[in-house]
Amino acid sequence: MAHTPPGWTEPETITIRPEAILPLDVVDRYLRGRLPNTDGPLEVVQFAGGHANLTYLVRFGEHEYVLRRPPGGPVAPGAYDMAREFRVLSALHPVFPPASRPYLFCEDTSVLGAPFFVVERRCGLVIHKEMPPEYLNRPDLSRRLSAAMVDTLVEFHAIAYKAVGLDTLGKPDGFVERQVTNWGKRWERVKDAAPIALMDELSRWLLARIPRSPVPTLLHNDYKLDNIMVDPVDIARIIALFDWDQCTLGDPLVDLGLLLNYWTEAGDSPGRKFIAQAPTTLPGFYTRAEVVHRYAQRSGRDVSAMAFYETFALWKTATVCMQLFVLYKNGQLQDERLADFAQRATALAEAAHVVTRSATC
Predict the structure, then answer these.
(1) Cα atoms found within 13 Å of the Cα of residue 78, Cβ hemisphere only
(2) Burial of 165 (0-12, 13-18, 19+ CB in 10 A)
(3) For a designed S-S bond to 105, which of 86, 185, 248, 318 qualifies (C-beta 3.0 to 4.6 A apart)?
(4) Once rounded to an integer, what is the mean pLDDT over residues 321-338?
(5) What sign has the CA pseudo-torsion 308, 311, 317, 321?
(6) Is the CB of residue 306 less than 8 Å from the CB of residue 359?
């Protein structure tokens, strides 16, 4: 059942971008009757968030769903895996409250040109670069939200993945070394769009310092504030976690490193602040050191090699930025937010270089 107010004015949605237009007659014909409560007229708009996967709000009368599909055109091997996301949500929804209920998966590319799936619509607040005005000057809320983010990650890593049928989701042995090698190959494929010599140096640094991994867990692989939906009444209550298409099995500290990658602080360099995607510089938010300390305290894991994981995350995200810049440059994504992503990749590489100087591994 819909939980949004009447009308079609949600600030989180936009008119569908030209490269993302869906054939409404095909969507109507395919979904009507395959989903519950599809008697009303069909309306579709696009969610504003996200830079690659295309996510739509689908409404049949008063009943709402979310449809996700990959971007058009060629994409990196293994990226934007809708089948994986559907499988993960199907397994996690019964045991992990932030995992939304999936309804259907379509692998027939003749329908919309790519695999897609439909999941339940959850309603709440997604915090992006700016803290909503009503929560400003509330360091107590920022601190509680910080704690909730860390604790939810610990809870996710504690899921018994074999018990929920996800033991074949990935190959945890040698995971980190394989990740560094594979992301190095991805960088090689896109680096000519805007060469960054420091990225090659970081590749060598990472390969020379692969740490001993703890016992493997599920990995979300994109855990950050704007992939989380919170309760507007209590922003420390997490309602949903999004973007499961990279979920796998491996070293849990990879997730923590990625969280640090996006967690900017007031004293960071202008370059690192340039790529900020969350208002974590505000008073009350944890510092990165506090994030690591709470995770270690709650999970019991050794975090002494966190500089490696944070460097890897920054370097990997720089590669993702360049991949998105190439999609934009080639016209596969017509999103002007991507125009400066080569600069963002440079800023991330510089931030990673600073972290390497603090490493003890």
Answers:
(1) 10
(2) exposed
(3) 86
(4) 89
(5) negative
(6) no
Give 337's DSSP letter: G
170: pLDDT strictly greater than 60: yes
Q: Do the beta carbons of residue 218 and residue 159 sit within 8 Å?
A: yes
CA–CA dist 353, 356 (Å, integer)? 5
Q: Are 91 and 135 in contact (CB under 8 A)?
A: no
Kindly tell me the sign of the dihedral angle through the C-alpha atoms of 159, 165, 169, 171: positive
Contact predicate 260/313, CB 8 Å? yes
Residues 6+ apart with CB under 8 A from 182: none
DSSP 133: G
Please report where in the chains the tokens 């709470």 appear, as a residue: 294
pTM above 0.85, yes or no: yes
pLDDT recorded at residue 52: 63
Query: In angstroms, rounded to a whole number, what is the distance separating the alpha carbons of residues 13 and 4?
Result: 12
- Give bridge partners of residue 234 from the DSSP assignment: 231
Cβ atoms of residues 228 and 126 within 8 Å: yes
- Residue 291, Ramachandran bin (φ over 0: left; ψ between -120 and 50: alpha; else beta): alpha
Model pLDDT, residue 1:
34
